[in-house]
């Protein structure tokens, strides 16, 4: 890939995570110079360290987050320190440095009780501690970077570089004849590398002055349930989808309440001159051929 010096230098926080690794890969594919910092490299709640890291960056992609949804129920203060206070520190450093901030947020800031896709300006209302902690971060970006802050909400994320629902379903295929999977939660399964490519495109549009700051919904088009996702993953893998049986959320009680409806609208992308992410089925069909998924089933991979 030819280098793209006009894009400047980018910084990716949370670079060891599933999305962080894919963002670095997407930046490399786009020929953009980037530095990736893991949690061990950068404490985003440390103002001095963050200012030093952000200096000279044109775009900062924040993938650093507390992601233990259930754990946040008993450690909300710790979750908010990362997802709220840490994001405020990053936003302040970006404001001082003149850098654009692409902050990855979540559908969990919304109440999850709608019947139609949530628009970008929908009223927030988290139903659990994790969602509340992430909303604090969103508010910090909106306050400190009204023009140069980009809040990208995603949901139902899966990818090659970490534990996720799709990988778990494929692993369990070799261990169980049937699986009971929740069929009363609705959302948009999103491949992390597809989101990473869109984050790069959004950052480039921001640098070109084509993308207004604000909220963007970085989820796949279409919608399904967890059962629908599992069945499609099995179908694409040559397994019998009927091995996946429907059940309800009541059968899998967890410490944190999950939103029943996590379907997001994507109108914001047009303001940036960009198309929304592809349909979830198309994303899954491409993702399933990547090594981390293909290797689980002995399938040929594309990379």
UniProtKB/TrEMBL annotation:
Broadest EC class assigned to this enzyme: oxidoreductase
Enzyme Commission number(s) from the entry: 1.1.1.133
A Pfam family per the record: RmlD_sub_bind
Annotated keywords: NADP, Oxidoreductase
Chain ranges of the RmlD-like substrate binding domain: 10-290
Gene3D superfamilies attached to this UniProt entry: NAD(P)-binding Rossmann-like Domain, UDP-galactose 4-epimerase, domain 1
Signal peptide: none
InterPro entries, per database record: dTDP_dehydrorham_reduct, NAD(P)-bd_dom_sf, RmlD-like-bd
Pathway note: Carbohydrate biosynthesis; dTDP-L-rhamnose biosynthesis
CDD domains to which the protein is assigned, alphabetical: dTDP_HR_like_SDR_e
Cited function: Catalyzes the reduction of dTDP-6-deoxy-L-lyxo-4-hexulose to yield dTDP-L-rhamnose.
NCBIfam families for this protein: rmlD (TIGR01214)
Family: Belongs to the dTDP-4-dehydrorhamnose reductase family.
Protein name (database record): dTDP-4-dehydrorhamnose reductase
Organism name: Streptomyces nojiriensis
């Amino acid at each position: 890939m030819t280098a793209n010096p006009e894009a400047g230098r980018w910084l990716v926080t949370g670079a060891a995570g599933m999305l962080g690794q894919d963002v670095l890969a997407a930046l490399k594919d786009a020929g953009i110079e980037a530095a990736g910092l893991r949690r061990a490299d950068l404490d985003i709640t440390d103002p001095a360290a963050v200012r030093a890291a952000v200096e000279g960056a044109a775009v900062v992609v924040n993938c650093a987050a507390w992601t233990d949804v259930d754990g946040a129920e008993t450690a909300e203060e710790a979750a908010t320190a990362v997802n709220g206070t840490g994001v405020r520190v990053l936003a302040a450093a970006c404001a001082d440095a003149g850098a654009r901030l692409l902050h990855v947020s979540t559908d969990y800031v919304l109440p999850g009780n709608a019947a139609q896709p949530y628009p970008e300006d929908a009223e927030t209302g988290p139903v659990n501690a994790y969602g509340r902690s992430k909303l604090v971060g969103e508010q910090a970006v909106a306050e400190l970077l009204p023009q140069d802050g980009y809040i990208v909400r995603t949901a139902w994320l899966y990818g090659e570089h970490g534990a996720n629902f799709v990988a778990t379903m494929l692993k369990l295929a070799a261990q169980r004849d049937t699986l009971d999977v929740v069929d009363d939660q609705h959302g948009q399964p999103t491949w992390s590398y597809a989101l990473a490519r869109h984050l790069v495109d959004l950052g480039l549009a921001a640098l070109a002055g084509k993308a207004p700051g604000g909220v963007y919904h970085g989820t796949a088009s279409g919608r399904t349930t967890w059962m629908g996702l599992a069945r499609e993953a099995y179908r694409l893998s040559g397994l019998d989808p009927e091995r996946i049986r429907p059940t309800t959320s009541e059968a899998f009680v967890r410490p944190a309440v999950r939103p029943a409806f996590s379907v997001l609208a994507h109108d914001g992308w047009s303001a940036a001159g960009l198309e929304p992410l592809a349909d979830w089925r198309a994303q899954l069909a491409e993702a399933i051929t990547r090594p981390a998924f293909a290797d689980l089933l002995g399938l040929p991979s594309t990379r």
